[in-house]
Each structure stands twice: as structure tokens, then as C-alpha cells.
Amino acid sequence: MHETLTSCSSPPTQNPTVQPHQSPLLFSSSTSRHHQTTAISSLLKSCSQPNHLKQAHALILTHGLQRHSSLLSAATLSYISLNLLHSAYLLFRTIPNPCSYLWNVTIRALANHGHLHHALRLYSSLLSSAIHRPDKFAFPFALKSCAGLSDIQKGKQIHQQSICLGCEDDLFVRAALVDMYSKCGHIDSARLVFDKMRQRDLVSWTSMISGYAHNGRNSEVLEFFHLMRCSGVRPNRVSLLSSLSASGRLGALCKGQCIHGHAIQTGFETDILVATAIVDMYAKCGSLDLARLMFDRTDEKVADKIFELEATHSGYYVLLSNIYASKSRWKDVERVRTLMAGRKVSKVQGFSLIEFHNHVHKFGVDDRSHPQAKEIYSYLEELAAPLKQNGYVPLIDFALHDIEDETKEASLFYHSERLAIAFGLINLSPGVPVRITKNLRICVDCHNAVKIISQVVSRKIIVRDMNRFHHFEDGSCSCGDYW
């Protein structure tokens, strides 16, 4: 016999001291179904710990309420609030008739937390639902998932569906379309959507500016930055980084100085990423004195200030660690790692994705978990000799370990992008471009290696990293070695 509420004379919501882990003790067989659902609903709202939520969820199953939509919906929202997204997704799939709000909240949460395939699966289910249809709240996050996966075909389908369902003109849907087309490398399509927008917010402007930057359209980057400022929209970090980078690539010192001024006005000059971009811009424009002056003002002092403001942002620690490693300052590298550990900061793990036969294959650095790992590593070993014969010299300073040079060289050769590229070269038909997506910036050594790989194997290789698209062909890259 199940345990059910012993104190059933008053609704559970009137007992604020009840905790989820105490709930099984409050049940007896005399409790009505109404009181059971009310009690569990109250418990779900009070859950602040995963184990409490799991116990409350177990009560739903124990008391035969697994078809009770309102309870399952409340449990799904609780899983989302605790960032237990996989559990939320699995539970959502069991709800008989989810409401429109729950569809949208779940798709949004999955997209925002990187569960992109799950987000698109839910979107497809919503599209085929007999009760609900995607609306202006669902489309932006379905498109965001396409952008994250560089899935242009799915993105185009969703664009067409937004037109059919009368949502294309919504500001947020259009902004998401601009972002999706930009990140998938279809910048001209993004421009067409942008030009039709009656209102343009910071997200829309930034998507166009960063999209042009990612695709090497540097003149358009500066043009759009100017138009954005004229429209009264203040630049953010992304638009400043893109515009500073474009100024450096074009050698446009005056425009770069103007953008530096905007960085000062908006308070971004002390941002370590923007400060680094300013130094890089001055150096590429040939103004080494200004680059040095900015570097001396930046260096570790700015990093220390940023650590105070964003102590858990791993990117800043990694950037400073890279600076120290390139100078062989291994004690300082270890100091940064110790600081990260003390503050419980986790370094973002790099990975590369490649799609083959409608399946996305994921690779990490020195990853041997793939079914074709043996073949992939053998292929890379065979490539080593022709790469060196064509001028490849490993940049061992970029191997962030105080180890022997030979070991550093080996560690560089098995970065995630090289594993993904090798997989593509093995499996794709001759002449088909190899397209991969990397979640971090491609390192200088891999950039040099992929240029030569494209020449050795006579294949076009397209890498989308966190900054831009790199089109490698015949030993050169579309970025001109500036990224």
C-alpha cells in the first residue's frame, strides 16, 4: 500500500514547512487524488535541489499520476529551472498535451544551453502537433539551434515555415534569421532579411557586423558599424571586436582609432578581449608605438581587473594562460590554473563537429573514442611527412605544457579540428569540400597545418570557428592569416 498524506485535512500549500525530502512521510491511503496532486504540485514549486526534485517526480510515478499533464508540466519547468535539461527533455516527451507556453519554454531552454539537436526535435514535433503550431516565441530558438549547428538547410526550412505561419515580420524572428544566415555563411541572405526589417535592434546590427567579419567582408563591417552608430544604437563587445579586427585587416588606422574611441566611451576599453583587439589592430595598421602603449596599459593589470569582475569566466583565464605559455612562463601558467581551481572555474573543452550522412560526428583533442579512430590517426600519421615537406613547422610554443618538444609536436597534431578534417577526407567523396565547425578559435598551428593540408590533398576545407569562417584552398586561407 502506498504512503499518502496523513495530514490531509488541510491542503499541503498551507504547510510551508514541508520539504520535498520529507514528503513521503506525509502520505497515507486516505488522501484524495485532488489532495495528492495539490501536494505534489506544491512540492515541485519548492524544489531547489536536484535530489528533492527527483523525489517529488518519483511521487508522481508512485501514485499513478504519470498522465497528469499539469503535474508533468510543473516537473518539467522545475527541471529547467535547475538546468537539468536532458531530464526536462525526456519528461516533456511523456506529457500528453503540452501547452503552448511549455513548448516554447522547453525549446528555448534547450537552445540556450547547447542541446541544439533536442531543441530542433521538439520544434519538429511542435510543427506536426494537431493542437499547437510554432509561433514568434518558438522560431527564434529553433533558428538559433540551426545557427549553432551550421545547418543551413534546416534553417531555410524554418524560415519558410515562419513565412507560412505569419511570423517572419516579428522583430525577434527576423533578428534570429539574420543571425542564422550569418553564422551559416550565407551573409547575402542575411542582408536581404536585414533590409526588410522595419526596426533594428542591437542583436540585428551585431549579427550583420559579426557576420560580415566572419565571412571576410571587412569593408562592410566598418560600413555597418558606422550605420549602427548613426542609428543611435550603442556598440557592444561583439561589434567592437569585429570592427577592430576589420580595421586591422584593412590597415584602416583612422577608422580603428575611431572605434577605439567608441570602446572608451562605452567602457569596453578595459575588457581584456577588446583591449587585445585594440593592440592587434594598431600592430596590423603599422602603428607599433600605439600598439606597445596599449599593450603596456593592458597586459596582466587588465586581466586582474577582469578576474575581479567576472571571476568565473573561463575564457579570461585561458587567454592569460596562453600569454604565459607562449613566453614559457610555466610557473605563471600553473598559478592561473590553481586560481581557476580555487574559484571552481572550468575551462571550456574544445571540440570540432562534422556532418556525414545526416549524422554529426564530434571530436575532442586527442580523442580516440570514435569508431574510426584507428583509421583517422593512421591517416594523420601518413600526412605528417608530406606536410613537413611542404613547409609545415609545428609551433610548439602553442602547446600549453612544460614538456619535451617532441611530445608537444605530437599533442598539436591531434587537435580536434585535425581529427574532424581527417574523418572528412577519409569518408567524403573526392572533390567534396570538407566542412567543420569548432567551438573555440582555431589555433595558429592548426591554421598553418590546414592551409598546407588543403594543398597536399587538393581539397577545399572550410572551418567555422568562434570568430569567423576560414576557407582553405591551395595552401592559403580566405582570412589572409588575420583572425
Briefly, what is this?
The chain has 483 residues and is mainly alpha-helical. It has helices at residues 33-46, 50-62, 69-81, 85-92, 100-112, 116-127, 139-149, 152-164, 171-183, 187-195, 202-214, 218-230, 237-250, 253-265, 272-284, 288-309, 314-326, 330-342, 373-389, 405-413, 416-427, 444-456, and strands at 351-356, 359-364, 434-438, 461-464, 469-473, 476-477. 59% of the residues lie in helices and 6% in strands.
Descriptive overview:
The chain has helices at 33-46, 50-62, 69-81, 85-92, 100-112, 116-127, 139-149, 152-164, 171-183, 187-195, 202-214, 218-230, 237-250, 253-265, 272-284, 288-309, 314-326, 330-342, 373-389, 405-413, 416-427, 444-456; strands spanning 351-356, 359-364, 434-438, 461-464, 469-473, 476-477. α9 runs antiparallel to α10 (187-195), α13 (237-250) packs parallel to α15 and α14 (253-265) runs antiparallel to α15 (272-284). β5 (469-473) and β6 (476-477) form a beta hairpin. 59% of the residues lie in helices and 6% in strands. The chain starts with 32 loop residues before the first helix and ends in a 6-residue tail after the last strand. The radius of gyration is 26 Å and the shape is globular. The protein has a 6-stranded mixed sheet, covered by helices on one side. The chain has 483 residues and is mainly alpha-helical.
